[in-house]
Please model this.
Amino acid sequence: MRTLLALAFGMAISMASLAAGDLTITSQVTGKGALAKDGSQVQYLSATRMRINHAGSKVDSLVDYGHEVIYSIDHGKKVITKMTFKDMQEAMQALEDQMAGMPEMVTKMMFGDVSEVKVEQLGPDAVLGRPCKKVRVVLGKMVEELSIDPSLQFPIKDYAKSMAMLNRVPGPMGALFKRVYQETAKLKGLPLKTHITGLMGTDVTTVATEISTAAIPESTWALPAGYTMRDGGKEMKDAAKGKR
Model:
């Protein structure tokens, strides 16, 4: 479930800016929590797909927005876990149902009040010699500092399908993901450095070390041969039923 939350959160941030043309960003990730594993990270973005390769965790993620499907690729175990956007929505709903009996105070202790948003301009910054604007966004318990390059944009084309998935996520987590998207989208540009703290013990810094706008080879999107394919949606549903 922590992997699911991390992926959904990452998608919310990644979909904040839209444009055309492929983009590849190599970064260094340090920190702790569901969103982190020390090591290099390469993010491939095209008009219809996104892939993130994590050298530290040896677990990659591939999102196909056109087909509304997500793959988690575990190279250590040689296992691919497939989950559709609908599966993710139902998994989030199952988690929300489990939390339904909790007092509002408990959910606020976990996520804070996601209706409270504060955006603070921190001034100019530079990453890879590129001029950036530094911003701090406080949303509930999450504090996110971003150094944004306004000259770059994410190339995601299937925006409507992407946002339809996020809009179906229920409960406080859904509200959090949507507010992250809404506030980040207002900033216009691509974050080359991020520092996220306060959410489920997360303290993660990601800094871009290389940027490329060259066309991404089709082979980048291929799933590795010889890996076991698992139905992540079915596993999540079965696990939720077992807790009722």
User: Anything to note?
Assistant: The radius of gyration is 17 Å. The helical segments are 2-14, 85-99, 104-111, 159-167, 171-185, 232-242. Residues 85-99 form the longest helix (15 residues).
